[in-house]
Design goal:
Blueprint: H1 2-113, E1 117-121, H2 132-143, H3 148-153, E2 156-161, E3 172-176, H4 179-187, E4 198-201, H5 205-225, E5 230-232, E6 237-239
Antiparallel strand pairs: 1-3, 1-4, 2-3, 5-6
């Protein structure tokens, strides 16, 4: 009886040992497989880390290249702007020069067109039915001291009053046929000294403005230096 129980117990113990041995073998196998998998994962991680580091280096390099490229583009933009600015300034200067030359040419042409004209200021215009030609010829003979026969013989192409905004008599513009007759009138203008009448060359507006400014400068200089009274054909004034 005892022998049978011992055998049964021994059989159970051997069965347990076998199961433990099998379990240990399976556990070792699982551990081996797991270790292999862990090593493979570590290897893959190292590879990925290496590739990541390489990618980071490439990204850093690309960023540097991009920064340099952006700086280069910005520098080129500045150069282009500078070149375009210089080009535009040059074109602006050339256009302004051409415009000034054209203005000068127009002024000279206008001056040439008006070379036969004179402007007469200060002649009374209160008579509504005045004959401007008679008034002008009377001025030539009486005020400019030109012989009446000669004054009446001067051919006049046109004469009329010029509308103005200011107060006082409207000026008279006279156009002569012969330039020599105009010269005679201008050379006789010194006889107007002491009167309110002035005779001036008919100039373009721009030249009239310059003459007006220069006349004031000339007057101040003469007054400061106490230059004696003179009649200026250029200004058509008497300086005191």
């Amino acid at each position: 009886m005892a022998s049978a129980e011992f055998k049964e117990l021994k059989s159970l113990i051997m069965g347990v040992d076998k199961k433990v041995s099998d379990f240990s073998q399976q556990l070792e196998k699982v551990e081996h497989n797991l270790t292999g998998m862990i090593n493979e994962v570590k290897t893959d991680v190292n590879i990925l880390k290496t590739k990541y580091d390489e990618s980071q280096l490439e990204i850093t390099s690309l960023r540097q290249d991009l920064t340099e490229l952006e700086q280069g583009v910005a520098g080129m933009d500045l150069q282009i702007q500078a070149i375009e600015g210089e080009k535009l300034q040059k074109q602006k200067y050339e256009l302004q020069t051409q415009m000034n030359e054209m203005k000068d040419q127009v002024t000279l042409l206008e001056k040439h067109e008006r070379k036969y004209n004179v402007m007469i200021y200060g002649v009374d215009d209160s008579k509504a039915d005045e004959n401007i030609y008679s008034v002008t010829r009377q001025l030539f003979s009486q005020n400019l001291k030109i012989e009446q026969r000669k004054a009446n013989a001067i051919p006049i192409a046109n004469a009329h009053r010029v509308p103005t905004r200011g107060s006082g008599p409207k000026p008279i513009i006279v156009r002569f046929i012969h330039y020599g007759d105009k010269q005679l009138i201008m050379s006789s203008a010194h006889n107007l000294k002491g009167s309110q009448i002035r005779i001036l060359d008919d100039l373009p507006v721009s030249m009239k403005e310059e003459r007006f400014l220069l006349s004031h400068v000339a007057y101040k200089i003469r007054k400061k230096r106490k230059i004696p009274n003179t009649y200026s054909r250029c200004w058509g004034t008497y300086d005191t």
